[in-house]
Protein backbone atom coordinates (compact mmCIF):
# COMPACT_ATOMS: atom_id res chain seq x y z
CA UNK A 1 0.00 0.00 0.00
CA UNK A 2 2.90 2.36 0.66
CA UNK A 3 4.10 1.69 -2.89
CA UNK A 4 0.68 2.67 -4.23
CA UNK A 5 0.81 6.01 -2.40
CA UNK A 6 4.50 6.81 -2.81
CA UNK A 7 4.13 9.85 -5.09
CA UNK A 8 1.14 11.42 -3.29
CA UNK A 9 1.63 10.15 0.24
CA UNK A 10 0.29 13.27 2.09
CA UNK A 11 -3.01 12.99 0.23
CA UNK A 12 -3.56 9.48 1.58
CA UNK A 13 -2.75 10.27 5.22
CA UNK A 14 -6.39 11.10 6.15
CA UNK A 15 -7.58 7.83 4.62
CA UNK A 16 -4.87 5.95 6.53
CA UNK A 17 -6.00 7.60 9.75
CA UNK A 18 -9.61 6.55 9.08
CA UNK A 19 -8.51 2.96 8.41
CA UNK A 20 -6.33 2.85 11.54
CA UNK A 21 -9.16 4.24 13.65
CA UNK A 22 -11.68 1.70 12.38
CA UNK A 23 -9.44 -1.33 12.83
CA UNK A 24 -8.30 -0.12 16.25
CA UNK A 25 -11.91 -0.07 17.44
CA UNK A 26 -12.50 -3.45 15.85
CA UNK A 27 -9.61 -4.87 17.90
CA UNK A 28 -11.10 -3.28 21.02
CA UNK A 29 -14.45 -4.87 20.20
CA UNK A 30 -12.92 -8.30 19.61
CA UNK A 31 -10.94 -8.09 22.85
CA UNK A 32 -14.03 -7.10 24.84
CA UNK A 33 -16.01 -9.93 23.23
CA UNK A 34 -13.39 -12.52 24.21
CA UNK A 35 -13.30 -11.26 27.81
CA UNK A 36 -17.12 -11.16 28.11
CA UNK A 37 -18.68 -13.82 30.34
CA UNK A 38 -22.37 -14.85 30.47
CA UNK A 39 -24.31 -14.81 33.73
CA UNK A 40 -24.01 -18.27 35.36
CA UNK A 41 -26.97 -20.25 36.59
CA UNK A 42 -27.86 -19.49 40.24
CA UNK A 43 -27.92 -22.27 42.81
CA UNK A 44 -31.36 -21.24 44.07
CA UNK A 45 -33.13 -19.45 41.21
CA UNK A 46 -35.74 -16.81 42.00
CA UNK A 47 -37.58 -17.44 38.74
CA UNK A 48 -38.72 -20.85 37.50
CA UNK A 49 -39.98 -21.21 33.94
CA UNK A 50 -42.97 -23.41 34.83
CA UNK A 51 -44.26 -20.71 37.21
CA UNK A 52 -42.91 -17.41 35.92
CA UNK A 53 -42.60 -17.52 32.11
CA UNK A 54 -45.11 -16.87 29.35
CA UNK A 55 -43.91 -17.04 25.74
CA UNK A 56 -45.72 -14.66 23.37
CA UNK A 57 -45.52 -15.39 19.65
CA UNK A 58 -47.10 -12.88 17.23
CA UNK A 59 -47.60 -14.52 13.83
CA UNK A 60 -49.85 -14.58 10.76
CA UNK A 61 -48.55 -17.46 8.67
CA UNK A 62 -46.88 -20.06 10.90
CA UNK A 63 -46.39 -23.37 9.13
CA UNK A 64 -44.75 -26.69 9.90
CA UNK A 65 -41.57 -24.91 11.03
CA UNK A 66 -43.65 -23.58 13.93
CA UNK A 67 -43.99 -27.11 15.31
CA UNK A 68 -40.23 -27.59 15.51
CA UNK A 69 -39.86 -24.22 17.20
CA UNK A 70 -42.75 -24.84 19.63
CA UNK A 71 -41.36 -28.23 20.68
CA UNK A 72 -38.02 -26.55 21.44
CA UNK A 73 -39.77 -23.91 23.60
CA UNK A 74 -41.72 -26.53 25.52
CA UNK A 75 -38.52 -28.33 26.52
CA UNK A 76 -37.81 -25.38 28.80
CA UNK A 77 -41.20 -25.96 30.51
CA UNK A 78 -42.74 -22.46 30.33
CA UNK A 79 -46.03 -21.97 32.11
CA UNK A 80 -47.80 -20.98 28.90
CA UNK A 81 -47.33 -20.13 25.23
CA UNK A 82 -49.67 -17.52 23.77
CA UNK A 83 -49.98 -17.34 19.98
CA UNK A 84 -51.47 -14.07 18.71
CA UNK A 85 -52.76 -13.99 15.15
CA UNK A 86 -55.38 -12.25 13.03
CA UNK A 87 -58.94 -13.54 13.21
CA UNK A 88 -59.00 -15.26 9.82
CA UNK A 89 -55.97 -17.40 10.82
CA UNK A 90 -57.47 -18.64 14.09
CA UNK A 91 -58.53 -22.04 12.70
CA UNK A 92 -55.22 -23.11 11.08
CA UNK A 93 -53.14 -21.92 14.03
CA UNK A 94 -55.45 -23.56 16.55
CA UNK A 95 -54.93 -26.83 14.68
CA UNK A 96 -51.15 -26.37 14.88
CA UNK A 97 -51.37 -25.58 18.60
CA UNK A 98 -53.56 -28.63 19.25
CA UNK A 99 -51.07 -30.81 17.41
CA UNK A 100 -48.23 -29.63 19.66
CA UNK A 101 -49.68 -29.07 23.16
CA UNK A 102 -53.29 -27.85 23.53
CA UNK A 103 -52.94 -27.51 27.31
CA UNK A 104 -50.02 -25.08 27.34
CA UNK A 105 -50.61 -23.22 24.05
CA UNK A 106 -53.40 -20.66 23.69
CA UNK A 107 -54.32 -18.96 20.43
CA UNK A 108 -55.74 -15.42 20.65
CA UNK A 109 -56.65 -13.02 17.86
CA UNK A 110 -56.72 -9.36 16.86
CA UNK A 111 -58.90 -7.96 14.04
CA UNK A 112 -56.05 -7.27 11.60
CA UNK A 113 -52.44 -8.35 11.23
CA UNK A 114 -50.27 -5.90 13.16
CA UNK A 115 -47.28 -7.16 15.12
CA UNK A 116 -47.31 -4.49 17.83
CA UNK A 117 -51.04 -4.88 18.46
CA UNK A 118 -50.58 -8.64 18.60
CA UNK A 119 -47.75 -8.29 21.13
CA UNK A 120 -49.79 -5.83 23.21
CA UNK A 121 -52.74 -8.22 23.27
CA UNK A 122 -50.45 -10.99 24.45
CA UNK A 123 -49.09 -8.75 27.21
CA UNK A 124 -52.62 -8.02 28.46
CA UNK A 125 -53.33 -11.75 28.67
CA UNK A 126 -50.16 -12.64 30.57
CA UNK A 127 -50.23 -13.58 34.26
CA UNK A 128 -46.57 -14.46 34.86
CA UNK A 129 -43.65 -12.32 36.01
CA UNK A 130 -41.57 -12.78 32.84
CA UNK A 131 -42.61 -12.44 29.21
CA UNK A 132 -40.49 -13.91 26.42
CA UNK A 133 -41.23 -12.71 22.89
CA UNK A 134 -40.23 -15.19 20.19
CA UNK A 135 -40.46 -15.41 16.41
CA UNK A 136 -42.48 -18.35 15.14
CA UNK A 137 -39.35 -19.96 13.64
CA UNK A 138 -36.92 -19.41 16.53
CA UNK A 139 -35.50 -22.75 17.69
CA UNK A 140 -34.13 -22.79 21.23
CA UNK A 141 -31.56 -25.02 22.90
CA UNK A 142 -32.98 -26.85 25.96
CA UNK A 143 -30.99 -24.59 28.33
CA UNK A 144 -32.09 -21.22 26.93
CA UNK A 145 -34.83 -20.38 29.44
CA UNK A 146 -32.77 -21.10 32.60
CA UNK A 147 -29.87 -19.00 31.27
CA UNK A 148 -32.19 -16.13 30.35
CA UNK A 149 -33.91 -16.23 33.74
CA UNK A 150 -30.51 -16.17 35.49
CA UNK A 151 -30.03 -12.55 34.38
CA UNK A 152 -33.22 -11.49 36.18
CA UNK A 153 -31.64 -12.37 39.52
CA UNK A 154 -30.35 -8.81 39.29
CA UNK A 155 -33.52 -6.84 40.07
CA UNK A 156 -32.27 -3.90 38.00
CA UNK A 157 -32.36 -5.96 34.80
CA UNK A 158 -35.53 -5.35 32.80
CA UNK A 159 -34.70 -7.06 29.50
CA UNK A 160 -32.52 -9.97 28.38
CA UNK A 161 -31.40 -10.99 24.88
CA UNK A 162 -29.55 -13.95 23.38
CA UNK A 163 -27.00 -14.75 20.70
CA UNK A 164 -28.13 -16.24 17.37
CA UNK A 165 -27.14 -18.51 14.51
CA UNK A 166 -28.71 -19.16 11.11
CA UNK A 167 -30.79 -22.28 10.59
CA UNK A 168 -30.71 -23.15 6.85
CA UNK A 169 -34.07 -23.64 5.18
CA UNK A 170 -32.71 -26.46 3.02
CA UNK A 171 -29.96 -29.05 3.29
CA UNK A 172 -27.29 -26.50 2.41
CA UNK A 173 -27.04 -22.77 3.03
CA UNK A 174 -27.65 -20.47 0.10
CA UNK A 175 -25.35 -17.51 -0.46
CA UNK A 176 -28.03 -15.29 1.11
CA UNK A 177 -28.11 -17.41 4.25
CA UNK A 178 -24.31 -17.37 4.47
CA UNK A 179 -24.36 -13.57 4.24
CA UNK A 180 -26.92 -13.55 7.06
CA UNK A 181 -24.69 -15.90 9.07
CA UNK A 182 -21.72 -13.55 8.58
CA UNK A 183 -23.85 -10.65 9.82
CA UNK A 184 -25.04 -12.59 12.88
CA UNK A 185 -21.48 -13.53 13.82
CA UNK A 186 -20.44 -9.88 13.66
CA UNK A 187 -23.55 -8.93 15.63
CA UNK A 188 -22.81 -11.50 18.34
CA UNK A 189 -19.37 -9.93 18.74
CA UNK A 190 -20.84 -6.43 18.88
CA UNK A 191 -23.50 -7.17 21.50
CA UNK A 192 -21.20 -9.19 23.75
CA UNK A 193 -18.54 -6.46 23.61
CA UNK A 194 -20.97 -3.62 24.31
CA UNK A 195 -22.55 -5.60 27.17
CA UNK A 196 -19.08 -6.18 28.63
CA UNK A 197 -17.87 -2.58 28.16
CA UNK A 198 -20.81 -0.55 29.49
CA UNK A 199 -23.74 -2.93 29.96
CA UNK A 200 -25.71 -1.60 27.00
CA UNK A 201 -26.89 -2.95 23.67
CA UNK A 202 -28.23 -1.19 20.56
CA UNK A 203 -31.14 -3.64 20.26
CA UNK A 204 -32.54 -6.65 22.12
CA UNK A 205 -33.40 -8.68 19.02
CA UNK A 206 -37.06 -9.51 18.63
CA UNK A 207 -36.27 -13.06 17.51
CA UNK A 208 -36.14 -13.92 21.21
CA UNK A 209 -36.02 -11.49 24.13
CA UNK A 210 -37.35 -11.60 27.70
CA UNK A 211 -38.78 -8.75 29.79
CA UNK A 212 -40.29 -8.18 33.20
CA UNK A 213 -44.06 -8.19 32.79
CA UNK A 214 -44.49 -5.32 35.25
CA UNK A 215 -42.69 -3.02 32.78
CA UNK A 216 -44.82 -4.01 29.82
CA UNK A 217 -48.15 -3.90 31.70
CA UNK A 218 -47.66 -0.18 32.25
CA UNK A 219 -50.51 1.59 30.35
CA UNK A 220 -48.05 4.31 29.34
CA UNK A 221 -45.87 1.70 27.67
CA UNK A 222 -48.78 -0.04 25.93
CA UNK A 223 -50.09 3.23 24.51
CA UNK A 224 -46.68 4.38 23.31
CA UNK A 225 -45.90 0.97 21.87
CA UNK A 226 -49.07 0.80 19.79
CA UNK A 227 -49.11 4.51 18.85
CA UNK A 228 -45.52 4.95 17.73
CA UNK A 229 -45.06 7.51 14.94
CA UNK A 230 -42.05 8.63 12.95
CA UNK A 231 -42.04 12.42 12.60
CA UNK A 232 -45.49 12.44 14.16
CA UNK A 233 -47.36 11.08 11.12
CA UNK A 234 -45.95 7.75 9.93
CA UNK A 235 -47.18 4.99 12.25
CA UNK A 236 -44.67 2.19 12.83
CA UNK A 237 -45.45 -1.51 12.95
CA UNK A 238 -41.96 -3.03 12.68
CA UNK A 239 -39.08 -1.93 14.92
CA UNK A 240 -40.81 -3.24 18.04
CA UNK A 241 -37.52 -4.58 19.46
CA UNK A 242 -35.86 -1.20 19.00
CA UNK A 243 -38.75 0.47 20.84
CA UNK A 244 -38.53 -2.00 23.72
CA UNK A 245 -34.76 -1.51 24.04
CA UNK A 246 -35.09 2.29 24.10
CA UNK A 247 -37.85 2.00 26.71
CA UNK A 248 -35.51 0.05 28.99
CA UNK A 249 -32.86 2.78 28.68
CA UNK A 250 -35.21 5.74 29.09
CA UNK A 251 -36.87 4.21 32.17
CA UNK A 252 -33.72 3.28 34.05
CA UNK A 253 -33.73 -0.47 33.53
CA UNK A 254 -30.59 -2.45 32.79
CA UNK A 255 -30.30 -5.01 29.99
CA UNK A 256 -28.09 -8.03 29.44
CA UNK A 257 -27.31 -10.43 26.62
CA UNK A 258 -26.49 -14.08 27.20
CA UNK A 259 -23.91 -14.81 24.48
CA UNK A 260 -23.20 -18.50 24.98
CA UNK A 261 -24.07 -21.82 23.37
CA UNK A 262 -26.52 -22.58 26.18
CA UNK A 263 -28.66 -19.59 25.12
CA UNK A 264 -27.94 -19.44 21.38
CA UNK A 265 -31.07 -19.77 19.27
CA UNK A 266 -31.41 -20.86 15.65
CA UNK A 267 -33.44 -18.72 13.27
CA UNK A 268 -34.23 -19.00 9.58
CA UNK A 269 -33.49 -16.19 7.13
CA UNK A 270 -34.85 -15.57 3.67
CA UNK A 271 -32.88 -18.00 1.48
CA UNK A 272 -33.20 -15.84 -1.64
CA UNK A 273 -33.03 -12.22 -2.76
CA UNK A 274 -35.90 -11.36 -0.39
CA UNK A 275 -33.20 -11.28 2.29
CA UNK A 276 -32.33 -7.85 0.87
CA UNK A 277 -35.85 -6.66 1.69
CA UNK A 278 -35.39 -7.87 5.26
CA UNK A 279 -32.13 -5.96 5.52
CA UNK A 280 -33.75 -2.81 4.12
CA UNK A 281 -36.52 -2.96 6.75
CA UNK A 282 -33.98 -3.53 9.55
CA UNK A 283 -31.84 -0.66 8.24
CA UNK A 284 -34.73 1.80 8.24
CA UNK A 285 -35.64 0.72 11.78
CA UNK A 286 -32.02 1.23 12.86
CA UNK A 287 -31.84 4.73 11.37
CA UNK A 288 -35.10 5.80 13.00
CA UNK A 289 -34.29 4.31 16.39
CA UNK A 290 -30.66 5.46 16.55
CA UNK A 291 -31.54 9.02 15.55
CA UNK A 292 -34.16 9.06 18.31
CA UNK A 293 -31.76 7.62 20.88
CA UNK A 294 -28.94 10.03 20.05
CA UNK A 295 -30.74 13.29 19.34
CA UNK A 296 -34.32 13.15 20.66
CA UNK A 297 -34.31 11.07 23.86
CA UNK A 298 -30.54 11.29 24.55
CA UNK A 299 -30.57 8.93 27.60
CA UNK A 300 -28.09 6.69 25.82
CA UNK A 301 -25.25 9.24 26.16
CA UNK A 302 -25.13 8.96 29.95
CA UNK A 303 -26.46 5.41 30.40
CA UNK A 304 -24.34 3.63 27.78
CA UNK A 305 -21.71 5.93 26.22
CA UNK A 306 -20.00 3.09 24.33
CA UNK A 307 -23.28 2.11 22.67
CA UNK A 308 -23.80 5.78 21.82
CA UNK A 309 -20.38 5.76 20.15
CA UNK A 310 -21.29 2.69 18.06
CA UNK A 311 -24.51 4.40 16.96
CA UNK A 312 -22.62 7.51 15.87
CA UNK A 313 -20.10 5.30 14.06
CA UNK A 314 -22.91 3.62 12.14
CA UNK A 315 -24.22 7.01 11.02
CA UNK A 316 -20.96 7.72 9.19
CA UNK A 317 -20.01 4.16 8.25
CA UNK A 318 -21.70 3.99 4.82
CA UNK A 319 -20.03 7.22 3.73
CA UNK A 320 -16.53 6.27 4.91
CA UNK A 321 -16.90 2.82 3.33
CA UNK A 322 -17.73 4.31 -0.07
CA UNK A 323 -14.64 6.56 0.03
CA UNK A 324 -12.39 3.59 -0.84
CA UNK A 325 -13.90 2.57 -4.21
CA UNK A 326 -14.35 6.22 -5.16
CA UNK A 327 -10.65 6.86 -4.56
CA UNK A 328 -9.62 3.72 -6.46
CA UNK A 329 -11.81 4.75 -9.40
CA UNK A 330 -10.16 8.18 -9.40
CA UNK A 331 -6.67 6.63 -9.39
CA UNK A 332 -7.58 4.27 -12.24
CA UNK A 333 -8.76 7.27 -14.22
CA UNK A 334 -5.54 9.15 -13.41
CA UNK A 335 -3.48 6.14 -14.51
CA UNK A 336 -4.73 6.61 -18.09
CA UNK A 337 -2.61 9.77 -18.39
CA UNK A 338 1.19 9.88 -18.79
CA UNK A 339 3.10 10.59 -15.57
CA UNK A 340 4.65 13.73 -17.06
CA UNK A 341 1.13 15.08 -17.69
CA UNK A 342 0.04 14.51 -14.08
CA UNK A 343 -0.99 10.88 -14.49
CA UNK A 344 -0.63 8.20 -11.82
CA UNK A 345 2.61 6.19 -11.73
CA UNK A 346 0.99 2.71 -11.73
CA UNK A 347 -1.13 0.99 -14.39
CA UNK A 348 -4.85 0.50 -13.69
CA UNK A 349 -4.59 -3.29 -13.27
CA UNK A 350 -1.93 -2.84 -10.57
CA UNK A 351 -4.13 -0.46 -8.64
CA UNK A 352 -7.22 -2.66 -8.94
CA UNK A 353 -5.40 -5.89 -8.00
CA UNK A 354 -3.73 -4.25 -5.00
CA UNK A 355 -7.09 -2.93 -3.77
CA UNK A 356 -8.81 -6.31 -4.19
CA UNK A 357 -6.00 -8.12 -2.33
CA UNK A 358 -6.29 -5.59 0.51
CA UNK A 359 -10.06 -6.08 0.67
CA UNK A 360 -9.80 -9.87 0.72
CA UNK A 361 -7.16 -9.82 3.47
CA UNK A 362 -8.94 -7.35 5.77
CA UNK A 363 -12.48 -8.72 5.29
CA UNK A 364 -11.31 -12.31 5.77
CA UNK A 365 -9.62 -11.26 9.01
CA UNK A 366 -12.87 -9.66 10.15
CA UNK A 367 -14.75 -12.91 9.50
CA UNK A 368 -12.22 -15.19 11.22
CA UNK A 369 -14.52 -15.83 14.25
CA UNK A 370 -17.07 -17.28 11.82
CA UNK A 371 -14.59 -19.03 9.51
CA UNK A 372 -12.95 -20.71 12.49
CA UNK A 373 -16.10 -22.81 12.92
CA UNK A 374 -17.17 -22.98 9.27
CA UNK A 375 -14.03 -22.65 7.11
CA UNK A 376 -15.90 -23.83 4.00
CA UNK A 377 -17.63 -20.43 3.93
CA UNK A 378 -14.39 -18.70 2.92
CA UNK A 379 -15.50 -18.98 -0.71
CA UNK A 380 -18.28 -16.51 0.10
CA UNK A 381 -15.93 -13.73 1.26
CA UNK A 382 -16.05 -12.00 -2.19
CA UNK A 383 -19.86 -12.02 -1.96
CA UNK A 384 -19.60 -10.51 1.53
CA UNK A 385 -17.34 -7.74 0.18
CA UNK A 386 -19.77 -6.97 -2.65
CA UNK A 387 -22.69 -7.04 -0.22
CA UNK A 388 -20.85 -4.61 2.05
CA UNK A 389 -20.74 -1.95 -0.66
CA UNK A 390 -24.32 -2.67 -1.67
CA UNK A 391 -25.31 -2.34 1.99
CA UNK A 392 -23.57 1.05 2.24
CA UNK A 393 -25.60 2.33 -0.70
CA UNK A 394 -28.74 0.74 0.77
CA UNK A 395 -28.15 2.57 4.07
CA UNK A 396 -28.08 5.90 2.25
CA UNK A 397 -31.26 4.94 0.37
CA UNK A 398 -32.91 3.85 3.63
CA UNK A 399 -32.03 7.19 5.22
CA UNK A 400 -33.79 8.99 2.39
CA UNK A 401 -36.92 6.79 2.65
CA UNK A 402 -37.58 6.63 6.39
CA UNK A 403 -41.20 7.56 5.72
CA UNK A 404 -41.76 4.11 4.19
CA UNK A 405 -42.97 1.89 7.03
CA UNK A 406 -44.23 -1.20 5.19
CA UNK A 407 -43.07 -4.67 6.27
CA UNK A 408 -41.71 -5.60 2.86
CA UNK A 409 -41.40 -9.39 3.25
CA UNK A 410 -44.80 -10.54 4.50
CA UNK A 411 -48.11 -10.35 2.68
CA UNK A 412 -51.22 -9.53 4.65
CA UNK A 413 -49.70 -6.82 6.86
CA UNK A 414 -51.62 -3.69 5.97
CA UNK A 415 -51.95 -0.15 7.23
CA UNK A 416 -51.00 -0.02 10.94
CA UNK A 417 -53.22 3.03 11.48
CA UNK A 418 -56.30 1.14 10.27
CA UNK A 419 -55.38 -1.87 12.40
CA UNK A 420 -54.97 0.32 15.48
CA UNK A 421 -58.32 2.02 14.83
CA UNK A 422 -60.05 -1.35 14.45
CA UNK A 423 -58.49 -2.63 17.66
CA UNK A 424 -59.55 0.50 19.57
CA UNK A 425 -63.08 0.18 18.24
CA UNK A 426 -63.28 -3.41 19.45
CA UNK A 427 -61.96 -2.39 22.86
CA UNK A 428 -64.61 0.32 23.15
CA UNK A 429 -67.38 -2.02 22.06
CA UNK A 430 -66.25 -4.73 24.48
CA UNK A 431 -66.04 -2.23 27.32
CA UNK A 432 -69.55 -1.00 26.54
CA UNK A 433 -71.03 -4.49 26.81
CA UNK A 434 -68.79 -5.66 29.67
CA UNK A 435 -69.50 -4.20 33.09
CA UNK A 436 -66.00 -5.14 34.19
CA UNK A 437 -64.59 -2.80 31.49
CA UNK A 438 -61.72 -5.21 30.89
CA UNK A 439 -59.85 -4.02 27.77
CA UNK A 440 -59.87 -6.74 25.14
CA UNK A 441 -60.29 -6.95 21.41
CA UNK A 442 -60.41 -10.71 21.06
CA UNK A 443 -63.14 -13.27 21.41
CA UNK A 444 -60.67 -15.53 23.18
CA UNK A 445 -60.49 -15.95 26.97
CA UNK A 446 -58.65 -13.25 28.86
CA UNK A 447 -56.82 -15.56 31.26
CA UNK A 448 -56.47 -15.19 35.02
CA UNK A 449 -56.64 -11.85 36.85
CA UNK A 450 -53.44 -9.85 36.89
CA UNK A 451 -51.43 -11.06 39.85
CA UNK A 452 -49.08 -9.10 42.11
CA UNK A 453 -45.73 -8.86 40.34
CA UNK A 454 -42.36 -8.50 41.95
CA UNK A 455 -41.56 -4.80 42.03
CA UNK A 456 -38.19 -3.28 41.12
CA UNK A 457 -36.00 -2.15 44.00
CA UNK A 458 -36.79 1.22 45.58
CA UNK A 459 -34.00 2.99 43.70
CA UNK A 460 -35.49 1.78 40.38
CA UNK A 461 -39.13 2.68 40.94
CA UNK A 462 -38.63 6.34 40.06
CA UNK A 463 -37.07 5.21 36.78
CA UNK A 464 -40.05 3.00 36.02
CA UNK A 465 -42.41 5.97 36.28
CA UNK A 466 -40.01 8.21 34.40
CA UNK A 467 -40.29 10.46 31.40
CA UNK A 468 -41.83 7.94 29.05
CA UNK A 469 -41.54 7.68 25.31
CA UNK A 470 -41.67 10.69 23.02
CA UNK A 471 -43.12 9.74 19.60
How large is the count of helical segments? 18
Q: What is the H/E string?
A: HHEHEHEHEHEEHEHHEEHEEHHHHHHHH
Rg, rounded, reads: 24 Å
Q: Largest beta sheet: what is the strand line-up?
A: 3-2-1-4-7-5-10
Bulk shape: elongated
The proportion of residues forming helix, as a percent range, comes to 40-55%
The proportion of strand residues reads: 5-15%
Average pLDDT number: 85
Secondary structure: number of strands: 11
User: What name does the CATH topology carry?
Assistant: Spore Coat Polysaccharide Biosynthesis Protein SpsA, Chain A
Short description:
It is built from 18 helices and eleven strands. With 471 residues, it is α/β, with parallel strands linked by helices. The chain is elongated, with a radius of gyration of 24 Å.
Walkthrough of the structure:
The protein is α/β, with parallel strands linked by helices. The chain starts with 8 loop residues before the first helix and ends in a 7-residue tail after the last helix. The protein has a single domain, classed as Spore Coat Polysaccharide Biosynthesis Protein SpsA, Chain A (Alpha-Beta Complex), CATH 3.90.550.10. The strands form 3 sheets. Strands 3-2-1-4-7-5-10 form a 7-stranded mixed beta sheet, with helices on both faces. A two-stranded parallel ribbon has the order 6-11. It has a two-stranded antiparallel ribbon with strand order 8-9. Helix 3 crosses helix 4, helix 11 crosses helix 13 and helix 13 crosses helix 16.
Amino acid sequence: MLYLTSDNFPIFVPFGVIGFYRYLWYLIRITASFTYRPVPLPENPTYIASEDVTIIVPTIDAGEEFKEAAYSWLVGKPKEIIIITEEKMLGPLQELANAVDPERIRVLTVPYANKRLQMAHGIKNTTTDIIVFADDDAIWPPTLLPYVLACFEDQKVGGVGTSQRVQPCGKRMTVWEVLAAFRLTIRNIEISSSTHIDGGIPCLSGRTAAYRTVILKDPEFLHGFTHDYWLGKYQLNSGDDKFLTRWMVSHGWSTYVQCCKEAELLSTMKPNWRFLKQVLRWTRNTWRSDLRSLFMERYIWTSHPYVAYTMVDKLFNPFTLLVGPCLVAYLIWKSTFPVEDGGYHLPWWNILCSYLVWLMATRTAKLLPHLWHQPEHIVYVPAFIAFGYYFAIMKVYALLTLHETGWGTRAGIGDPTAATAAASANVDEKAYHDTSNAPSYSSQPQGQPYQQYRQPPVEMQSGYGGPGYAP
